[in-house]
Amino acid sequence: MSADYPVGIESLLIPWLRKIEPGIVRKGLRMYDNGAVEQAVYDEERDGYTMLVKSESNPRNGYMVDIGVEDDELTVFCTCKYFEGHIDCKHIAASIIRLINDYVETDEIEDILLPNKNQKIPAKSVAATTSTNEWMQFKASPTQVFQYVYRMSGFMLTTGKAVSAVNLIKENVNPPEWQFQYNETKTNIYYPEIKYDRRDTFSYKCGCNRPEELCLHVKAAFDWIQQIKGYQYFLTLKDFSKEKTEFLKPYGLTLDDAESRDITFYLENGALKMEAPEWLWETDATTEIENFKGLLHPNEKIDRPKTGPNEIIDFELGFLFNFKSEHFKNGF
After folding, report:
1. How far apart are CA 106 and CA 114, in angstroms?
2. CA 214/CA 152 separation, integer angstroms
3. Residue 142 and residue 196: Cα distance in Å, rounded?
4. Percent with pLDDT over 90 in the chain
5. Cβ contact 14:100 at 8 Å
6. Which of 63, 157, 228, 297 has the fewest CB atoms nearer than 10 Å to its CB?
């Protein structure tokens, strides 16, 4: 990088980025590379910028970022919730990188801000098949886990090369567990592992000792699952017993009851639905009972045929089944 970059606010940008967490810088780089910074308006009078940055979770929404100078110090502000309790955020980092990129290439920015990103970490023994570090956890909906991993990792979408370096070693369905081998080089081999509790908790470990919150090897393993198994794969593994029990409560049933076997559960747009047979009534069946009584004893007056003085017409069910009927005694 050339040392003669612009003076003024620009001279404060890189020093500010160097002060914050590397994970925030990585996320800012990711957002910038994905085109999240849409507008940059410069105010010459105050030597400041106003930026519009798209939300990663909902691109239709955006955040306003303000970058200025006060008493030779960089001042920053963002409308996102994260900034309310912190002095930085990924939207500000992305905006600053957008400004720096006018005179510094993106790969140079990474070298400047993340000088240890390519630091070699001693690899685990090739013969090893398990990780040695502790399990890390995060909570996410099974329908949103891949987006969550993408945001948490600090890496951009894993390249095809990284995913191709992943091989599945072992897989368990119940409980869902996966063990992978990540061949970074011929000598650097890592073994990321993933677990899923079938509700909303995901666990992972790798043993690479990288400082990132979630390393590239685990990120690539999640991407492998998404590409090979499908985007909704974790949803198919989720234990819906709790939701099914809530559906059955109004009917006075549990999953152990035989009647529950006649009930159909299915997924629709990621949500569990239930289809009950018509004969199944809820415990509060007031409406159903009233409707049934109406069928047995209709309120409408029924006009019966009129007969002559010596004629009998009997359509009552009692005549057919009640042998004490006067008609029967009379030999009718």
Report:
1. 12
2. 7
3. 9
4. 16
5. yes
6. 297
**Alpha-carbon separation of residue 127 from 170, 171, 184, 206 (angstroms):** 15, 19, 15, 15
Q: How many other C-beta atoms are found inside a 10 Å radius of the C-beta of residue 207?
A: 19
Is it true that the peptide bond before 192 is cis, omega within 30 degrees of 0? no
Count other Cβ atoms within 10 Å, centred on residue 228. Answer: 11
d(CA 185, CA 202): 28
Residue type, 324: K
User: Exposed, middle or buried, 36 (CB in 10 Å: 0-12/13-18/19+)?
Assistant: buried
Q: Work out whether strand 271-275 and strand 264-268 pair parallel, antiparallel, or are unpaired.
A: antiparallel
216 closest CA partner among 90, 122, 118, 289: 118
Strand extents, DSSP E, 116-275? 136-139, 166-173, 176-183, 189-190, 193-196, 201-205, 264-268, 271-275
Percent of the chain with pLDDT over 70: 70
Cβ(30)–Cβ(98) below 8 Å: no
The overall average pLDDT reported for the chain is 76
Q: Tell me how far apart the alpha carbons of residues 117 and 242 are, in angstroms, rounded to a whole number.
A: 44
Residues 60-80: tens digit of each pLDDT: 788 999 998 887 788 899 998
Find the DSSP H helices in 56-187. Answer: 81-84, 90-100, 106-113, 145-153, 160-164
Bridge partners of residue 205, in order along the sequence: 193
Residue 49 near residue 95, CB atoms below 8 Å: yes
Residues (pLDDT < 70) of the chain are 1-10, 102-133, 154-162, 209-213, 285, 288-289, 292-308, 310-332
Q: For residue 264, give Cα distances in angstroms to 273, 274, 276, 277.
A: 8, 6, 7, 8
From residue 277, how far is each of 154, 214, 259, 322 by CA, in Å?
A: 49, 47, 10, 35
